[in-house]
């Protein structure tokens, strides 16, 4: 099964997030994400839609985690400083994808 690390920009848009979660629930791929990615998409959602309360955003995150199981990658932080990318802010994504054995399937839908 394809293991895909989902970056924050894949989890931020509700339609894309919903489709990805449904595909994962149907066992068409195995999603992965990190705490850092959760923080990023949740912060973006709070900033772009200030009328959504923090409690609702936290509940959405909990529902996502419950819906597809525990897919949070941890223990990748030691890899971050070893990676060289054009955008150093993306190193945590690549590090988590490598550690989570996502292979070449890193979803970054904004690019």
**Can you tell me the number of structural domains?**
1
Task: Assign the structural class, choosing from mainly alpha, mainly beta, alpha/beta, alpha+beta, or little secondary structure.
Answer: alpha/beta
Give a quick account of the main beta sheet: strands, pairing sense, barrel closure: 4 strands, parallel
Mean pLDDT: 91
Percent of residues in helices comes to 40-55%
Radius of gyration over all CA atoms, rounded: 14 Å
> Count the strands?
4
Order of helices and strands: EHHEHHEHHE
Determine the oligomeric state from the structure. single chain
Distance between the termini: 24 Å
Low-confidence stretches: none
* Strand percentage: 5-15%
Major beta sheet, strand line-up: 3-2-1-4
Number of helices: 6
Overall geometric form: globular
Molecular structure report:
The chain has 111 residues and is an alpha/beta fold. The protein has one domain. The protein has a four-stranded parallel β-sheet, with helices on both faces. Helix 3 packs antiparallel against helix 4. The longest helix has 15 residues. The chain is globular, with a radius of gyration of 14 Å. The mean pLDDT is 91.
